[in-house]
Amino acid sequence: MGCCNRRCGLIAGAVFGAVVAILGGILIPLGNIVIEGTVEKEAVIENGTTAFDNWVSTGGVVYRQFWFFDIQNPTEIIEEGAKPVVVEKGPYTYRTRYLPKEDIKFNPNQTVSFILPLGAIFEPSMSVGPEEDKVTTLNIAVVGAYSLVPTVLHAVLENLIKSTNSSLFQHRTVKELLWGYMDPILKGVVGVFAPYNGTFDGPYNVFNGKEDISKVGIIDRWRGEYKLNFWNDKYCNMINGTDASSFPPFVDKRKPLYFFSSDICRSVSAGYVESLDLKGIEVYRFSLQPDTLASPTVNPDNACYCRDLKTTKNCTMAGVLDISSCQDGKPIFISLPHFLHGSKDLLEAVQGLSPNEEQHFTYMDVEPTTGFTLRFAKRIQVNMMYGPSKVITVLKKVKDYTIFPVVWLNETAAVDDETANMFKEELISRIDMLELIQKVLLGTGVAIFLLCLIAFCCVQRRNSQVKIV
User: Fold this and answer.
1) Which of 403, 405, 406 is nearest to 385 (CA)?
2) What is the mean pLDDT of the chain?
């Protein structure tokens, strides 16, 4: 009787263990469904969701650091045709993106429209000097006019340069170069980023994700258009992905992330690099694809970004993007800092450059479950092009077209401690707790089942031996 009770108890224990293990197993897909449902609900861009609060206003402080390329030999360049020699000067740091989105409107087609106000506040404590520091750099007006004015009118430009006592280079303050100064040639405000304060980017229309969460944050229209009109090609004019501040939830690291940047007038993609810990939160680091600015000979998709056969050496030059078509014809070329991943010709044309992968690459650290970008570093270099002229005195000694680095910026932000703690409490801790319960139930159930099964086998074996004796 005792043996029977013991066997029955072991069988019951094994059944109980199996039930607990099955319950733990069931909780895995069930828990995933609960997590997905919660994330999908909170990731929608509408009043009352976690995503909406983070979307309206940037969670972390965004800084833009600027490094200028100070020319050391301006006289030799003009009089002897010498190669430019530059020294990096910076950083000069500004706080940006401190203004929340404005004119937010919810549209019937499941999109949200808004504008992004622009502003910059100087941060002396994070800068090498005041805004009044001076830099010797290209004369933006002279170089711009050189590209815009037809060759037959270069004599007129020559007279204008002489009458205003202008030259190929100028000595200006950091503040003037960035945000604008009154130029004697153009008789208007000129600056690398002028106008900026008081302006805005957009308007944007993005999908709110309510109907399809896989489209949340993806840009539907920019400036009222479904595509760009800067490039003479349907592919290059596509507006792909989000604005990079967030992505649809449940990020798959095997797939690239697409985003549009108005700074460079095109869409780009980023690929998975590695997984990192950011203040206790696992994030996926994505970086620009290596072939983003490759020459069309390496990446044929870039053929439609090649606009000038002469300045790009028959479209074989890598590392720069001619965005003059979205800058009112101004000869502006975008690249990574110090021409990282650029052609050898770019580096040899200007002395003093030293590209560094760690310091000059662009990346985003994305939380994979929600798709929120919790940290990023956007590194962009602004360059201008000038070339030889038989008429303009300051360009007579120039031997070839030169893409000259004016300034590079590092725009960075990271989630602050308060937001990170809230993120962990509201989402990560719940997910971890659910996963822990799943593992405990599954592990405990399997253990009980195996122990009872082993014990039952031992009892059966002992009873068999007793009967034989």
Assistant:
1) 403
2) 86
